[in-house]
Design brief:
The chain is of the alpha/beta class and 390 residues long. The protein has two domains: 170 residues, Rossmann fold (3-Layer(aba) Sandwich), CATH 3.40.50; 204 residues, Dehydroquinate synthase-like - alpha domain (Dehydroquinate synthase-like, alpha domain). Helix content is 49%, strand content 11%. It is built from 15 helices and eight strands. It has a six-stranded parallel sheet with strand order 1-8-5-4-2-3, with helices on both faces. Helix 7 packs parallel to helix 9, helix 8 packs antiparallel against helix 9 and helix 10 packs across helix 11. The longest helix has 23 residues. The protein is globular, with a radius of gyration of 20 Å. It starts with 10 loop residues before the first strand and ends with a helix. It binds 5,6-dihydroxy-NADP and zinc ion (ZN). 5,6-dihydroxy-NADP binds next to helix 5, strand 6, helix 7 and helix 11.
Length: 390
């Protein structure tokens, strides 16, 4: 067990009747608000109208940046930063999924730079300690961006998708109303659910002997929650309990509570970000294709007990098997969950991805070194894992 500091200043308003607190949160920072949103889902589900009404009633001057893409582009972030500079924006309000919240965080950081360009911050690995305040209204249980210090930004010209991190990027407040996710299509629900699961899975194994029992138990509880409630939300999109469990699981998975002194692992994420950088696929779907292959590739005598534990404690695999057989059953159960229960297509070939860029992607995923985790992965390992996904 390592020493650790837990820090997360995000104030979360969770539940059906919390948006009434939006104006007081925004007015903490000023009256000029940049509302950032995506392709229109917030207009269709009524959230946009609620925000405009609240702004009008409280004397908030609302500016807008719409059209944030899934896998948000640095060019869109820069448009938002330009508005902030021109209009002297006080606070950036994101209303949407992870892409919208990440875009808002990028805007908040870039707005305080001299030229308003986010890409030098992203590509330079700058830890952001100065940014405009961000307030988030979450509509998709998935990325944890509503409570974490990260924004993942894509540059389609260079095929790069990179995380921008910083203490200043943690939202000042997050509004989580499970009802706002009722309109999510089944596919997005499945992809978001697996993203949550994988945030924990990537970290679970890295923890190894360095963690402590409470953290492992909490990690397993979050993964079990996803396994239990994702299929319910897919079948019954307006099931409040299912949406609420997924939404809070999204935040719990990445708000640092489950780190507990471990170094946060990201093996599948490092490999997936290359897939969405090159092919613009949905993040959670890419993760679901990679994760079972990653576990199959790294399975050995040393880590078999940990993988078997995932099987027994998350998927209900029978106890008492030898570790290697149990671990294989755990991986089978994970595959069944991804491709059976969640109904996600199981291969990269299904997504029309072939091996053309695997070498370059593998090298970039390792960023000149190795991907850390229960087994260190070099570019040649990553390439083999991509091939297993075909
Ligand atoms: O753009 P709109 O119209 O809002 O539609 C979105 C989009 O088409 C739609 N959607 C969201 N909420 C909806 C809804 N449709 C109907 N009803 C609703 N309530 O869903 C589509 C996908 O939205 P997006 O925001 O892209 O999904 P997600 O939340 O999964 O975010 C994915 C992005 O976050 C990054 C991913 O890499 C990807 O770029 N990540 C961010 C992380 C972070 N900040 O810490 C960590 C994650 O690992 C991840 O990498
Ligand atoms: Zn993720």
């Amino acid at each position: 067990m390592n020493d650790f500091i837990f820090y997360n200043p995000d104030k979360v308003y969770f539940g059906k009747n919390q948006l009434g607190h939006l104006s007081e949160e925004l007015l903490n920072f000023g009256k000029k608000v940049l509302l950032v949103y995506g392709g229109g889902s917030i207009k269709r589900n009524g959230l946009y109208d609620s925000i405009v009404k609240i702004a009008k009633e409280s004397g908030i001057e609302l500016f807008e940046l719409s059209g944030v893409e899934p896998n948000p582009r640095h060019s869109t972030v820069n448009k938002g930063a330009a508005i902030c500079k021109e209009k002297n924006i006080d606070v950036v309000l994101a209303a949407g999924g992870g892409s919208t919240i990440d875009c808002a965080k990028g805007i908040a950081a870039a707005a305080l730079t001299e030229n308003g360009d986010v890409w030098p911050l992203v590509s330079g690995g700058v830890w952001v300690t100065k940014a405009l305040p961000v307030v988030a209204i979450l509509t998709n249980a998935a990325t944890g961006s509503e409570m974490d210090a990260w924004a993942v930004i894509s540059n389609m010209k260079t095929n790069e998708k990179i995380g921008l991190g910083g203490s200043a990027l943690i939202p000042q407040a997050a509004f989580e109303n499970p009802e706002y996710s009722y309109t999510l299509p089944s596919y997005q629900t499945a992809c978001g659910a697996f993203d949550i699961f994988n945030h924990v899975l990537d970290n679970y194994y890295l923890a190894g002997g360095a963690t402590f029992d409470l953290i492992l138990e909490m990690q397993e509880a979050v993964m079990r929650t996803v396994v239990k409630w994702a299929p319910v939300a897919m079948k019954e999109p307006k099931n409040y309990e299912a949406r609420a469990n997924l939404m809070w699981a999204s935040s719990m998975a990445l708000n640092a509570i489950l780190d507990g002194g471990t170094v946060h692992g990201c093996a599948c994420h490092a490999m997936e970000h290359e897939l969405s950088a090159y092919y613009d696929i949905t993040h959670g779907h890419g993760l679901a294709i990679v994760a079972p292959r990653w576990l199959t590739y790294i399975l050995n005598e040393t880590n078999a007990p940990a993988i078997y534990r995932l099987g027994t404690n998350v998927f209900g695999v029978e106890k008492g098997l030898n570790a290697m057989d149990g671990a294989k059953k755990a991986i089978d159960a994970l595959s069944d969950f991804c491709f059976g229960t969640l109904g996600l297509l199981p291969t990269l070939t299904d997504l029309k991805i072939d091996k053309t860029h695997f070498k370059a992607m593998a090298e970039h995923a390792c960023m000149g070194g190795v991907i850390t985790g229960p087994m260190e992965l070099r570019p040649e390992d990553v390439e083999k894992i991509y091939e297993m996904c075909l």
